Amino acid sequence: MRLVGQNDKKGLLGIASWSRPVARAVRRARLRGVVAGLAVAAVASGCAQGALSGPAGGASPAAGAAPSGSAAPASPPPATRTPVTPRTPAATPTPDGRKPQSAQQAHAARVAAARRWRLARVPLVPPPPPAVKPRIATREGFEVDGHGELGLPPVFTTVPTDRKVVFLTIDDGAEKDPAFLRMMSDLKVPYSAFLSDYVIKDDYGYFRRLQRAGAVLNNHTLHHRYLPALSYRRQQYEICGMQDVMKEHFGERPALFRPPFGNYNRDTLRAARSCGVRYVPLWNEEVFVDRWDYREEDRRIRPGDIVLSHFRGRDEWRGTMPDMIRRFLDKVTAEGFAVARLEDYL
Question: What's the half-sphere exposure (Cβ side, CA atoms, 13 Å) at 196?
Fold first, then answer.
C-alpha cells in the first residue's frame, strides 16, 4: 500500500518566504500597533501556506496572500482582523457511531490483527465491488432437465471474474466457537454462512452476532436432508421453511441457497425458486484444519473460486475453526488472492 503524507518542510519554507518583506514593512512603520499587525499577518499567512500545502506540489498561498518575494500587503489592526484557519471537513461517522479509520490506521489494525492471530501474512484487501455484476450461469454439467427453459436458479462453483479474489463460505452452524467470532471480527474477513435450523436453533444469538460483525447468512435447509430422495413438497418445506426461520431471526429471506452435500435435482431447484432463491452456489475447493480438497484435477485456486468449510471444532477436526481460518488465509494470501464478499458479485 502506498501511503501519502504531508511534507512539513513546505510549511517552514512558506514562513521564510515572508521574512524579508515583513522586515522592510517593519522598518517603514512608525506606530507600535501597525508593527504588531504586520507581524501577526506574516505569521498567519505562513501558517496557512503550510496547512494547505499538497503532497505532490509546492505550498499553495492562502487566499489573498502576496506571492513569495513581493511586498507584504497592508493588514488591518489586530483588533479588527479575524484569522481564518483552514480545516479538513470532518469524516462522516460509521453506522455504529465510531470515527472511521484513516488508511494508515486501517493498515496498522490489519497488521496487528494478523500478528495477534498468528497469520503468516497480512490478508490482502479486496477491491471494491464491481460496478457491473458478472453474469452468473450454471456450470456446464451441473444443469438439470429444462434448467434454462424453466428459469431455474444457476448452480455454479466459480464467479466469472479476472480479479484475484476468492469467496469463503461456511456451512451448517454446528460449532459456535466464540474465538472464531472474535477472529473474524478482528480480521474483518468477509464470508457467507449457509445455515441449517436444526443445529442453530439452540443459539440464534450467536449467528446474530456473526451477522452484526459482517457475515452474510444464507439458507442450508431446516434439517440438512439429502434432498433428491424427497418429494417436491417435502423439499419445498425444507427450503421455504428455512427461509421463514431466516426472516424471523435474522431479518430477511436470503437470495442464496446451498443444498446439503451439494446434491440436488430439478425439484430442488424448482422448490428453491418458489421460495425466492435466486442463486445456488456450490464450491470449487474445501478447506479443513489439516488439508485442502479440490474439485479440479490441477489442484489450484482460480480467480472467483468459492471455497467451502464448516462450523466444526475439535470433536470432528484436528483443531479449531481459528486453525482452519489460519490455514485458509495463509494459503490464499501467499498466492496473491484477497477474500471478497460473494454477495457483492451477484
Answer: 22
Distance in angstroms (rounded) separating the CA atoms of residues 299 and 293: 8
**What does residue 155 show for φ and ψ, rounded to 5 degrees?**
-110, 125
pTM of the full predicted structure? 0.72
Q: What is the DSSP string of 227-271?
A: GGGS-HHHHHHHHHHHHHHHHHHHSS--SBB--GGG---HHHHHH
Q: Are strands 192-195 and 216-219 parallel, antiparallel or unpaired?
A: parallel
Among 110, 98, 290, smallest CA distance to 185 is for: 110
Q: Are 17 and 10 in contact (CB under 8 A)?
A: no
- Calculate the alpha carbon distances from 136 to 64, 164, 215 in Å: 57, 18, 22
For residue 247, which amino acid is it? K
Whether the Cβ atoms of residue 238 and residue 227 lie closer than 8 Å to each other: yes
Q: How far is CA 121 from the centre of its chain?
A: 18
What are 170's strand-pairing partners?
193, 309
Helix (H, G, I), strand (E, B) or coil at 118: coil
Residue 11 to residues 16, 49, 56, 82, 87, Cα–Cα distance (Å): 9, 6, 14, 21, 15
Q: Using CA atoms, how far apart are residues 55 and 297, in angstroms rounded to an integer?
A: 50
Per DSSP, the three-state class of 167 is strand
Question: Residues 344, 129: contact at Cβ < 8 Å?
Answer: yes
Are 144 and 269 spatial neighbours (Cβ–Cβ below 8 Å)? Answer: yes
pLDDT 10s digit of each residue in the chain, 346 long? 322 233 333 333 333 334 444 344 434 444 344 333 433 333 333 333 333 233 333 333 333 333 333 333 444 444 444 343 334 344 444 544 556 678 898 889 999 999 999 999 999 999 999 999 999 999 999 999 999 999 999 999 999 999 999 999 999 999 999 999 999 999 999 999 999 999 999 999 999 999 999 999 999 999 999 999 999 999 999 999 999 999 999 999 999 999 999 999 999 999 999 999 999 999 999 999 999 999 999 999 999 999 999 999 999 999 999 999 999 999 999 999 999 999 999 9
